[in-house]
Design goal:
Blueprint lengths: L1 H12 L3 H12 L1 H9 L4 H10 L7 E4 L21 H7 L2 E6 L2 E6 L10 H12 L1 H6 L1 E2 L5 H10 L4 H9 L4 E12 L2 E6 L7 E2 L22 E3 L4 E4 H10 L14 E5 L1 E3 H11 L11 H21 L4 H4 L7 E5 H4 L3 H7 L9 E12 L3 E6 L5 E4 L2 E4 L8
Parallel strand pairs: 1-3, 7-14
Antiparallel strand pairs: 1-10, 2-3, 4-5, 5-6, 5-13, 8-11, 9-10, 12-13, 13-16, 14-15
Length: 396
Amino acid sequence: MHGRCRRRRVIFREMSAYRVFALCSLFLGAAVTCAQEDGGQNPSVAARLKQEWSLHPGPLMLDAHNWLPDEVVIDGERVIREPDLSFIAMTSSRRYMRVGRADVFARRLKIGAGLSGGRAGSMWRFVSSRRDSLIKGMPLRELTSDEREVLMENTSMFPAFTRELSQGSSALLNLKVQFNWEQDGRQRSVFIDRIASPKIVGPPSGTPGWATARPLTSTSIPTLDFGEGRLLSVRLMLAKLSELGYTFRYDGRLEESPVFLKGEFEVPEFLEATREMLQTIPFFAEDRRSESEQKAATYREVLIQTMVANGVPPSLAERLDENFSIRANQQELLLIPQFREWLANEWAASENELVVRCRLVLCCDEESTWRVMRSDGISHTRSQFKYILAEPERFP
């Protein structure tokens, strides 16, 4: 029975796209029409993508799976921030290509050696191998290409930092410590770092090439027009082809993957762009069991080293337990410069014992900020990069 079902699925996938679309319409009726109107996707994501790419004239095809707010595209004043589409792709973990007149952002098929351990694991591998430099303060220009890729993968929410990173600036990347504890029913924290007064970063001058209109190459070539932007599943996107009489085959596991489309495509460039969009990541596996066994001990070692370098008395830092917490009374904690600066008056006559959780934080204050705007119209700023490193049990 299982073999018959499998064979039936293969036959169904190889049916003409027109027949598939017709059958769906027959059985689902108005539901199909409704799904086509919104693509069966999250309307807030669709609205955000429309806003982010509102200055792109189309045609544009973008893999929208787990697409993060890419504020390098435009800022809060709807001013283009980034003239380089390859850079936008890099900050979004995509690969960019120009297909005919169309700009295409497809899934990345290859990653550098630095990212082989996944996001959290690769970030930890970078920090642990560069701990001495990071504790002192490491200029971004000294990072290797693999290290930049690791940071790019984790910093798309910090466009000002990402720009500094791509330019290899002299801004310092630092390893610091954040302390968290509960007191009188409140969660409190102290972060070892300085906060600079940021300067506003202006947009690049001129209009980038990607924002200029792209006329059709011929009036005789059939086209597919997605207007000001549609967020569709692969299944519904390709149903548009069936309306023109095309048949096709593809991996059915991708049929609900979301794709953002904008503008008028000539069918040949649409087909080639879709071919790129539907490529999948090759299987990869790596035996890292021996490394995993050492992570907790290494994390504790790096955490103690960072605390001592930032003024925590060694005798206090060595109390760090297996949960990466320190048990100490308030007067002992005031021996830490940052605690003394912020809490000396409040804790002057107190000796209550507290359990303080300690966490490693990778940060960079490049002293600049961008104004950005969310899809709901609320503008805000992004400046200091601050990345809390996951504890060992969360590493892959």
